[in-house]
Amino acid sequence: MTVTISFLGGAGTVTGSKYLVRHGGHSLLVDCGLFQGYKQLRLRNWQPLPLPVAPDQIGAVVLTHAHLDHSGYLPLLARDGYTHPIHATAGTRDLCAILLPDSGHLQEEDAAFLNRHQLSQHAPALPLYTRLDALHCLRQFRNHAFHQPFEPLPGWRATFTRAGHTLGAASVLLEVGGRRILFSGDLGRPDDLVMDPPEAPPAADTVLIESTYGDRQHLQEGLLDQLGPTLQRLAQRGGVAMVPVFAVGRAQTVLHAIHLLKAQGVVPRSLPVFLDSPMAVSTTGLFAQHRDGHRLSAHDVHALSHSATLVQTTDESKALARRHGPMVILSASGMATGGRVLHHLALYAGDHRNMVILTGHQAPGTRGARMAAGEKRIRIHGQEVAVRAEVVQLTSASAHADADQTLAWLRRMAHAPEQVFVVHGEMGAADMLRERIAHELRWRASVPEHGSTLNA
Fold first, then answer.
1. Closest by Cα among 310, 422, 311, 424 to 363
2. Res. 278 pLDDT band, cuts 50 70 90
């Protein structure tokens, strides 16, 4: 019987990863992410999964990692009838226990804000899902160790290998119907400041490879080289730096970098740093529980929680508005799509002494992408906000492998696969990586279309 893959997300875009594998009347979903960025993509989150994949027809879910563009649709899937296990590594499960309820809570808060100020076209505005929806789906998680095969469905075998990138992140080898299918997940960088490098990929017949940075290479200068002079300028002019960060991974990387820069005397030790994200605060504590998979020593892990003031409550967050610069505020979300960072941007973005420091890939259509492109006005909570602050994009802070590093990872396979599907990238990045795989590796490669179904 044929094994097929339906590309329900993460095809032609860098978000919404969902890959449905079907064989012999059974189906399994690898990743279950939210679409982010452009409104027409975000609207897909509100649409039911296309038939014939009603939630109650899916037999298992396997997660590569916890980031919301890979896991954030799970509360909806479970609410709409999915009752089977969600298979993940322990690190991924622990991060999802932080990320998913927080995502539901933020959506409830955003809907309440819109209703309070009558800013929504809908009456009333509703959250995509609630914190309670997220808590319910966490009961379905099942933990698995790296390199230990398990059966998500009878006769189907899956194995996790380390992908770097963030705590618990994995590539997934799925063996079904005589086929070996490798899902890269999000690959980390071999030179990452915090995470260990990705492990060599296992042999496979079909590979799904991410292409977030498929059309570019990271700069030779590292994060410390970029961030040091940036914070020096900020301290000299007494400004406020707003740093939109992903609470999982990026916040900890930037905190570690600031700690090192202060220890080296590059940045004044007196420069106040605030981590204004309860989710990021909780995530930081997980680095002590999951010592394998990251490079940080016990001293470094301790410094993560002590080199910044940890801001938990809403009142503590609001109190930052009464402080004067210089200071650095790290706050979610990483592309400025929601969360507390929006309030800081609304307050501080209009002052030329201040900074917006972007710390990674900004999906098209997000506020982060608009600021990176030089737009001087952004819309926050229904209001136009002027952007006079200096906008700095730290390309070296990305947790994704670049094009050269991705190709190097593929070259480590024991033998050439029969085919490669290039996914999880904007169209230009995906097609550029496809072309390099075809020309440099001489492998058959293609970029699947959203909604397409192809043989594995």
1. 424
2. confident
Predicted TM-score (pTM) of the model is: 0.90
User: In this structure, are residues 128 and 45 in contact, taking their beta carbons and an 8 Å threshold?
Assistant: yes
Specify the long-range contacts of residues 93-96, CB closer than 8 Å, at least 24 apart. 93/138, 93/141, 93/143, 93/168, 94/167, 94/168, 94/286, 94/289, 94/290, 95/65, 95/66, 95/166, 95/167, 95/168, 95/248, 95/283, 95/286, 96/63, 96/66, 96/71, 96/138, 96/141
The CA-atom distances, in angstroms, between 176 and each of 91, 133, 392 are 26, 31, 46
| DSSP designation for 396 | G
What secondary structure letter does DSSP report for 149? -
Q: 118: burial class by Cβ within 10 Å (0-12, 13-18, 19+)?
A: exposed
Kind and range of the H or E element at 133? helix 131-138
Evaluate the omega torsion of the peptide bond into residue 197 and state whether it is cis, within 30 degrees of 0: no
- Tell me 48's DSSP state: P
Neighbours of 387 (CB within 10 A): 19
Q: Strands 377-380 and 383-386, how do they pair?
A: antiparallel
Q: Could you report the per-residue pLDDT of 374-406, keeping only the tens digit for each?
A: 999 999 988 899 999 999 998 788 889 999 999
Q: Specify the pLDDT at position 398.
A: 83
Give the burial string for 253-278 (b: 16+ CB within 10 Å, else e): bbbbbbbbbbeeebbeeebebbbbbb
Residue-wise pLDDT for 48-77, tens only, equals: 888 778 899 999 999 999 999 999 999 999
How far from 148 is each of 61, 131, 151, CA to CA, in Å?
17, 32, 10
